[in-house]
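Task: sequence design from structure.
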């Protein structure tokens, strides 16, 4: 079962506008200087149960101020067989614009048959590993300048 670290019901730092952010557990990239190494373990945090999914979708659908949903982590693409049905359900049941952070590059995801289908549910992908030497606090919505904010649709 997927686990999540925490959620932010209204954040302005994880993409455009006011967003409901879900931080999923599990990451294989192990970037030096990672802001959140406890997120690497896929069992960190709390189980993302059916009850929690319903709770989050209800919170999203009852908040008229939201501009979208953001999936972050960890790396949401850690377990594509779990993430694909999850993002599909959030997309279809909320109709919200979706941003997603990942340590993979867009090109790596395109070449991966298990992960590529997930891209069709993402409006904006922030891609690439965190590179400490390319870190700047002035970068909006990303940690290092190698990471890209890619509008997929
Ligand atoms: S991809 Fe993100 S969560 Fe994963 S190790 Fe790198 S900075 Fe940390």
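Answer:
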């Amino acid at each position: 079962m997927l686990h999540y670290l925490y959620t932010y019901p209204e954040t302005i730092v994880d993409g455009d506008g006011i967003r409901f952010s879900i931080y999923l557990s599990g990451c294989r990239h192990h970037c030096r200087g990672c802001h959140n190494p406890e997120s690497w373990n896929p069992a960190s945090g709390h189980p993302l149960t059916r009850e929690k999914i319903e709770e989050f979708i209800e919170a999203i659908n009852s908040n008229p101020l939201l501009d979208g949903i953001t999936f972050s982590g960890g790396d949401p693409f850690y377990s594509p067989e779990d993430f694909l049905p999850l993002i599909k359900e959030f997309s279809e049941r909320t109709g919200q614009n979706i941003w997603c952070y990942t340590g993979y590059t867009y090109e790596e995801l395109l070449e991966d048959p298990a992960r590529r289908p997930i891209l069709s549910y993402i409006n904006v992908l922030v891609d690439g590993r965190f590179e400490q030497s390319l870190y700047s606090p002035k970068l909006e919505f990303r940690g290092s300048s190698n990471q890209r904010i890619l509008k997929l649709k």
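The mean pLDDT is 97.
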